[in-house]
Structure formats: structure tokens, C-alpha cells
Amino acid sequence: MSFEILNTPIFATIQDKGRFSYTSIGVTNSGVMDEFSYEMANRLLGNEDKSNTIEVAFSNVHFKVNSNTTLAITGALCEFFINDILKTTWQTYNVKAGDIIKVGKILEGVRVYISVKDGFKIKKEFGSNSTTIKENLGGLDGDKLKKGQVLPFNSYSQSHNTRLKKEFIPKFTNELELRVLLSYQDDSFQKVQIDKFFSSTYTITNEFNRMACKLRGEAISCDINGIISEGISFGAIQIPSNGQPIILLKDRQTIGGYPKIGSVLSIDCFKLSQCKPGCKIRFKPIEIVQAQKKLKEFYLSFN
Amino acid sequence: MEIKLASVDSLIIYFGNEINKNIALKVKNAYSSLLKSDIKGIIEVVPSYTSIFITYDIFKYSFDEIKNILKESILIKNTESLSQKEFVIDVYYGSEVGFDLEDISKKTNLSTDEIIAIHSQKLYDVYAIGFLPGFAYTASVNEKIAMPRLSSPRKVIPKGSVAIADTQTAVYPSSSPGGWNIIGRTTLELFDKKLDSLSPLSVGDKIRFNPISKDEFLSQGGVI
Lengths: 303, 224
Hints:
The complex is a heterodimer.
Chain A: E1 2-5, E2 11-15, H1 35-45, E3 53-57, E4 61-65, E5 69-82, E6 85-87, E7 91-95, E8 100-116, E9 150-152, E10 175-182, H2 191-199, E11 202-208, E12 212-216, E13 230-231, E14 236-238, E15 246-248, E16 255-256, E17 260-264, H3 266-272, E18 280-285, H4 288-300
Parallel strand pairs in A: 10-18
Antiparallel strand pairs in A: 1-4, 1-9, 2-3, 3-8, 4-8, 5-6, 5-7, 5-8, 10-17, 11-12, 11-18, 12-15, 13-16, 14-15, 14-17
Chain B: E1 2-7, E2 10-14, H1 21-37, E3 42-47, E4 51-56, H2 63-76, E5 86-91, H3 101-108, H4 112-121, E6 124-129, E7 136-139, E8 154-157, E9 161-165, E10 168-171, E11 176-178, E12 181-185, E13 206-211, H5 214-219
Parallel strand pairs in B: 5-13
Antiparallel strand pairs in B: 1-2, 2-4, 3-4, 6-7, 6-13, 7-10, 8-11, 9-10, 9-12
């Protein structure tokens, strides 16, 4: 009643919706980077919306199936094999004991999600299975998945076949526009700087992980150098003194002291999480009422 | 009190713009009253030196609605105060573990004994918990031994290291990169997965550092 990991994945972790209400004690929210792919996997399987999943970045994960289940594979476009037969993604598969599952090369996008019917049966820490390596919390042992580890689940033998219609499968491109709510210290940026921020094209650097995405491009200057450390939102855009924006993501530090020009709308952070270093980023302003409407529509679309 | 937008589902309340006890007390009162008023749909409440960051359920409130609710509930209950625990943290201030003691001594023209005496004579306040679980931002250190952060951070600071940055002091609860000046080490566990709060410290607590000898440090399980 499990998956067994046959190789050493480069970076695969157990994630769920995230770990909430512990940021006051320094514990970050964590959780899946791309909520669209995650929610879609849950929907394909008929899982509850807090189910856990395997988030695979950087390809190449091999599992052995030890008991019948139905799995869903979503997220980045990748080479996906069941018993060495190439399969399409964004759909469910009924697998049985002895089957070998492989995620090979990632072709477009960055993160692949593999979920099973009713989720993996792993003890939660602080209300969540999400792995945050720097906090040694979540997953099987607070760390990324390793060769020989076993991911238990309850067997499921009914035939279950669903797939996402082609027109709903996201396209992963090398250009992305991120909608930004001006907020936090926006008053400390002069209009000419804000105009520059919204009219420039930035490039995603190699410094892009679950914690943050560093960009390179036109430097933005701020009237203040630092602020008294304060709580940081998902999507917050820090502008350190070198002027290069840093977008803070799921494993962000809970408190920080760099000025922030605003925050990227969370739906757009999910898209960002499928972008590779080198991708071109542009920013576009959005107002709070419209932003909340868009976010509500996003979550309601999975009901 | 000023409420500002932070993100699509979060906001930040500012109570001032400098680190001092008066503003910290306002934050403490507001934080306490927020926890007690138990407003449904509030997800995260993160107090810091001068602010409280809040995330909320946008299916329950618009930004304007939650702003008005917060204005009312915080103003009415501004006489509350947090319960305060007092902690004594045993610290071995030896040069083997206090990597920057000698450097601070040179920069301040104080002997290491004087630095230790100044650091350990004061009762400090915990202003914020963050960065990492169990990392307590504690202030204010006597200006005589206030030290700016290192020009470039160390890759690894050992767990339990006692540190100074400007007028703040803190203990690294686990090994991590960091740019604060290291003056000693404690065996006290500040990141404890067995505790519900993950850490014995919380905002509002008071801390005193108690100098101990190398032998005492080692007998407490200290590692050099």
C-alpha cells in the first residue's frame, strides 16, 4: 500500500496546501508552488482540497507501485512513463502492484505534481505535510525525498479515468506578465521609479527556489534603505539597495527588513513557479477589488 | 495606527516607525486584543517591532471590511497586556564560541569582560519571533556594544549562538547562515518540535543572559 522511491530524485518533496497560523512563531506557510496544477490533480482524483502531493522539480524520479491506486499527474510538461510506456499528463491512471512509474525529462515548465487517490498517509506536522527543509518540518523526515523511502497510501482498486480538457491545460511560456498590487512601502518609491518598474522587462536569474525568485533588469531605487523588520506576504516584492526585485514565495522568511514596492497577485505567483531562469517578466498594476475578484474566481473554478 | 495593504489577502497595521518600548507596548496590546477577539477568518497574525501583519480569508471579508473590523476591535481593547514570562539564558561567552568578541572589543575599546558584563546585566524584551522558528528578535542592547551586521554573512552559524546586530540581540535556534556578531553560545533549546509553539519564547517575554563557565557549559551538554 505504497510507492517506493527507486532512485535519488534531484528535488522532490511532499507538499500540500500549506502550513497556516504558525507564522507568528517563525514557521513559514510552505505548500505547493503551483496551486493550479495541485488543485487540478485533486479535482481529477476527487480528493479533498487539502490532500498532499509530490512536487517534482528538475525531473527524473522513479517509483515502484506496491499496491493498486489511481494517480494523477499534472504540472510541467514532462516525459511520463508507466512500465516504460510513454503517457500523457493532466490525467489519471489506474496503477497496480508492480508497476514502475517514471518522471523523465521536464520539457516545458518546472514543477510536476503526482497525487494519489485520497493522498499519502503521512503524519502531519503543525497541521500540514508540506516540507520546509530549512525548518526540518513536514514530508517523511523534514527533508526532500530519498531513494528507498516509502510513501504509504490506502489501496484503491476502482477504475477511475478522468482527464483535463486540452483547452484548460496551461501553456508554459518564456514570457509572463505579473499583476502587482502596490502596497507596503510603495509611498517610499518616487513616481518615476514606479513607472520604470511597470515599463521594464526583467529576467529570472538562477537564484530561484521555493523561497524566492530573484530578477535582473532595470534597477529601482527607493527613498529608504531598510525598514524595521515586518511580516512578509506571499508574492511580496522586495527591493534591496541594488534595486533588483526579489519576489518572495512559499518558503519565504516570515519577517524581513527590505523595502517592498508591492505584492504579486498569488495566482500569478503560481504561474511564475513554472518559469525557468531566463524567462522574461513584466509587471502590470491591479487594484485590490479586482485582485480579490480574480483570486476568488480562481478558487471557485475548482468547485 | 495606520492600516496598509500588503497583498491580495493580507494587510499590515503600523503603530509607529521606530524601535522603542512605547510602540512595542502598543503592538503587544493590539496583538493580545486581536487574539482574544478571535475574529473568524483571520489566518495569520505576525507581530513585529512596530507592526502587525495579518492574512485573512477573502471569501469572508473585502479589504475595506476587514480594515473596519480591525479598527474597531483594536481600539476598544487597548488596555490589554500580554502575560510576560521571564527567561534566564545561560551563556558561555568564550572566544572559542564567541567568534566576534575580540573584534567587538577592538571596535569598542572595551575588554571582553566588560562586553560580557554589559550584555548580561540587562533585562531584554522579545519584540518579534521570525526569520526562523524560535528566532527571537530581542532588544535593546546598550549602545556601547551595539554592532552593525557583518559586511558579508557567515555561511553557517552554529546552533545556540548568541548574537548582536545593532541594538538587537538574539540566539540562533538552529544552525543557519547569518550576519549577526557572535558573542557566545547557549545549550537552551529554542527550536523544539515537541513544544506546541515550537519555541519556549514568545513576543512579550523578558530575557536575561547569565554568564556561565566553560565547565558549566560543557556539563549542560554544550559543544565547542
